[in-house]
Structure formats: structure tokens, C-alpha cells
Specification:
3-stranded antiparallel sheet, 9 helices, globular, binds adenosine-5'-diphosphate, binds magnesium ion
């Protein structure tokens, strides 16, 4: 159970600062963590704390200035914050879902890819009636289900989710978390799950890491961090969620 699927060590990334002048802005400043197989690690923190930059580096979408990233699986997939942008509005839903597979499994016929896409729709509880509809016809929650279906098509071991419910109605958020939790068990997925909302992730994440100013300031079992936050910052994050 303690096999590691993803490990990052001392990741650093700076960007050119606003206003020029050659001043750099350090977005991620020495971040290290690991995700075990079958585990969900939550990465929480206020806006601007470096969560997305960390996620992009972990996913291999952005090169770190320094540090190491080790992924011990075959495939990982990323789920983005805004499903409406992640899903092509002008393509039919089943085609969008199937597209990932066309790149990864060149030997499958179009028909086989479509069948797999329909199965993935079942998995994420997106009615097959949506297969022939266009992306733009879907609600935010349905769009996110479709991007999750597209991600699981290639049987990834790890999903990196960057605030996958922040753009959705509150009533839909819990349902998407419920779906991800279900897939965790049925597909044996591991997660790096980014959120600014501790309350939302508390039931889903086994451990949480709290980010502030590009660093992890606290990390531990979710229940421990929530009930006994060691950092003042974590307490403030918790309070701000509870008083919303
Ligand atoms: N491509 C970029 N160019 C310049 N600055 C960036 C870029 N991406 C992120 N930043 C800056 O890095 C910091 C961390 O951003 P980000 O990782 O998006 O934080 P979070 O996801 O926690 O809100 C912020 O100050 C942000 O403005
Ligand atoms: Mg972000």
C-alpha cells in the first residue's frame, strides 16, 4: 500500500515579475511531496500560493527551474479547473472523449474507440444520449464529467486535478467529488487534488499539504490537519471556509 506513484523533490519555479525590471517572482519555492498508489493527496492554499504551477510541473506540462519529478506509472492525466474550456464546444462529445485514445492506441478502429468512449461515459454517469451532442450543449458539470471520461480512457494511474469543481455550481461540486471518489476505488486511481476549499476536500483526501507563498507549510493526515492545524495560516484557511 505504501508504493509511491509520484514523487517531487525540491521543485522551484520563478516567473518574470509584473512590471518588468528583471525582477523574478518565485511561484514555487522548494516543494517536495509524494503520492502513494491508491491515495489522494490534497494540495490546498489561497489563490496565488503556487498550486497550479506545482500541478503543471508534476504533470510534466511545465519545466521546473530545478528539482526532480518521478512518476512511477505509465499514464497520468490532468483535469483542469474550467471544463468549458477543456472540452471543445464544436466537437461531438463522444469524439472529444475518444480523442485521447486515438493518440495512445493507434491500432483501435474508430468503432472500437467509440465503444470505449461510450463505456467511459457510463463510468462517469454521463448519459449515452449526450454522445452525439456538441460540447457547447453541455452544462459545466456535464462538461467536467466528459473531461474525466476522456482522462480515464487511457487508463491512467494518477489524476492531477486542479480545482476541478471551482467553476461549477455548489450543488454540482459534491457530485463531481463523489464521482472522483468512486473512480478512485473502481479504477484504483491515485490523485493529486488541488483545491482552495478545505471543507470540500476533507472527505476525499487521505492527506493534505498546505501551500503558502510557494512552499508547503504543513502536511499530514487530513483529519489531523483539520482538527489540529499547526499553522496559523491553516487555521485562517479553515475559518474562512467555515464562515463562507
Ligand atoms: N505563467 C506565469 N507567468 C507569470 N507569473 C505566473 C505565471 N503562472 C503563475 N504565475 C504567478 O505565480 C504565482 C503562483 O500562481 P499559481 O501557481 O497559479 O497559484 P495558485 O494556483 O495557487 O492560485 C502567482 O503569483 C502567479 O501570478
Ligand atoms: Mg490555481
Amino acid at each position: 500500500m505504501d508504493e509511491i506513484i509520484l514523487e517531487v523533490k525540491n521543485l522551484k519555479k520563478s516567473f518574470r515579475g509584473p512590471g518588468g525590471g528583471g525582477k523574478r517572482l518565485t511561484a514555487v519555492d522548494g516543494v517536495s511531496f509524494s503520492v502513494k498508489r491508491g491515495e489522494c493527496l490534497g494540495l490546498i492554499g489561497e489563490s496565488g500560493s503556487g498550486k497550479t504551477t506545482t500541478a503543471y510541473m508534476a504533470a510534466g506540462l511545465l519545466a521546473p527551474d530545478s528539482g526532480e519529478i518521478s512518476f512511477y506509472g505509465t499514464h497520468l492525466q490532468m483535469i483542469f479547473q474550467d471544463p468549458k474550456r477543456a472540452l471543445d464546444p464544436r466537437r461531438k462529445v463522444a469524439d472529444s472523449i475518444g480523442e485521447g485514445l486515438l493518440y495512445h492506441r493507434g491500432k483501435l478502429s474508430r468503432r472500437q474507440v467509440r465503444e470505449r468512449a461510450l463505456e467511459a461515459m457510463d463510468m462517469v454517469r454521463l448519459d449515452r444520449a449526450y454522445a452525439g451532442r456538441y460540447g457547447r450543449e453541455l452544462s459545466g458539470g456535464e462538461c467536467q464529467r466528459a473531461t474525466i471520461a476522456r482522462a480515464v480512457m487511457i487508463r491512467p494511474e494518477l489524476l492531477i486535478c486542479d480545482e476541478p469543481t471551482s467553476a461549477l455550481d455548489v450543488s454540482v461540486q459534491a457530485k463531481i467529488i463523489g464521482l472522483l471518489d468512486e473512480l478512485k476505488h473502481s479504477l484504483g486511481l491515485s490523485y493529486l487534488f488541488i483545491s482552495h476549499d478545505i471543507a470540500l476536500v476533507s472527505g476525499f483526501c487521505d492527506r493534505v499539504a498546505v501551500m503558502r507563498g510557494g512552499r508547503i507549510v504543513e502536511m499530514g493526515e487530513t483529519a489531523d490537519v483539520l482538527s489540529r492545524p499547526r499553522e496559523e495560516y491553516t487555521k485562517v484557511l479553515l475559518d474562512s471556509v467555515l464562515t463562507l
